[in-house]
């Protein structure tokens, strides 16, 4: 009886577990499926059918053409990739160098700086926007591409801790051997340690790149001239207005913007998993 009772309990636990997984899967897939079905619908189909109704013609790419042209998505992609290039290179290097200093050099205030970074990560970004906007405005950096790049270049706290964990797994004897061979601290970092941080670099670059790519609030606030500084996250705002939103064009544009992220994730997913797990374990 006891064995049977345990077996029934395990069956119930497994059933509940898989039920929650199925519910979570459907909850995650429904918005994507509805976006795909809406993107292929004509105006008449969109206004006369429900969201989950399948389109009559799956080869109707007119919505994608309209979304690309009317939202000026070519210009938006160009501006976005220019911003990403500067932000990813600068942010990755700043985070790696800060982590190198905090991990390899023991000085007064080291622990304090780490704790301040932790406190800064807990403060909602929206809570500081009034002050940040005043500073950006006083420096005449609002509505400029370089101003927005400078703003997004801010060091990511998560990236610092990822790099610190990777430095913990790299023995300090490598630094000492390089210094004995006549290498200075810059040489140690750029020639010895930085090549060993490839998984961490890819992980931090993807995390920062996705957040920058999807950033709408600050892009809309600081890049006010949409004719010059349109980015991917703000380009689809073209199809919204006081008379209603054209969701068939918006969904088509969303699918277009998803393509680069999906391709990059597929190509780099092994680095993401290695970067998030390898740096979390100290050898």
- Going by helix content, strand content and strand pairing, the class is mainly alpha
In whole angstroms, how far apart are the ends? 46 Å
Low-confidence stretches: 279-283
Strand percentage lies at under 5%
Q: Major beta sheet, specifics?
A: none
Explain how this protein is built.
There is one protein chain. The protein is mainly α. The protein is built from 14 helices and no strands. The radius of gyration is 24 Å and the shape is globular. The model is unreliable at 279-283 (pLDDT under 50). The protein has helices at residues 2-39, 43-48, 62-70, 73-104, 110-122, 129-138, 145-152, 157-168, 173-180, 185-193, 198-214, 217-222, 232-235, 247-278.
Short key terms for the protein model shown above:
283 residues; single chain; mainly alpha; disordered C terminus; 72% helix
In short:
The protein is mainly α and 283 residues long. It is built from 14 helices and no strands.
How are the secondary structure elements laid out?
Blueprint: H1 2-39, H2 43-48, H3 62-70, H4 73-104, H5 110-122, H6 129-138, H7 145-152, H8 157-168, H9 173-180, H10 185-193, H11 198-214, H12 217-222, H13 232-235, H14 247-278
Helix pairs in contact: 1-14, 3-14, 4-7, 4-8, 4-11, 8-11, 9-10, 11-14
């Amino acid at each position: 009886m006891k064995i049977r009772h345990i077996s029934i309990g395990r069956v119930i636990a497994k059933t509940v577990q898989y039920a929650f997984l199925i519910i979570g899967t459907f909850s995650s897939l429904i918005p994507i499926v509805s976006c795909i079905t809406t993107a292929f619908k004509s105006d008449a189909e969109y206004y006369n059918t429900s969201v989950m109704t399948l389109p009559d013609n799956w080869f109707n790419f007119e919505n994608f053409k309209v979304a690309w042209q009317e939202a000026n998505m070519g210009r938006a992609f160009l501006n976005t990739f220019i911003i990403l290039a500067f932000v990813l290179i600068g942010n990755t290097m700043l985070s790696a160098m800060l982590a190198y200093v905090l991990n390899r050099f023991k000085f007064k205030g080291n622990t304090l700086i780490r704790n301040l970074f932790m406190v800064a990560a807990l403060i909602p970004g929206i809570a500081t926007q009034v002050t940040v906007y005043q500073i950006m405005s006083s420096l005449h950096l609002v509505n400029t591409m370089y101003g927005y790049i400078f703003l997004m270049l801010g060091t990511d706290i998560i990236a610092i801790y990822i790099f610190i964990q990777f430095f913990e797994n790299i023995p300090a004897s490598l630094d000492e051997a390089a210094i004995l061979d006549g290498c200075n601290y810059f040489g140690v970092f750029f020639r010895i340690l930085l090549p060993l941080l490839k998984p961490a670099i890819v992980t931090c670059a993807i995390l920062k790149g996705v957040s920058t790519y999807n950033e709408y609030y600050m892009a809309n606030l600081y890049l006010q001239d949409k004719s010059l500084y349109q980015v991917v996250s703000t380009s689809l705002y073209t199809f919204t207005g006081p008379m209603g939103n054209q969701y068939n064009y918006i969904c088509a544009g969303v699918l277009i913007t998803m393509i680069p992220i999906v391709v990059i994730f597929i190509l780099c997913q092994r680095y993401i998993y290695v970067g998030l797990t390898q740096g979390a374990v100290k050898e």
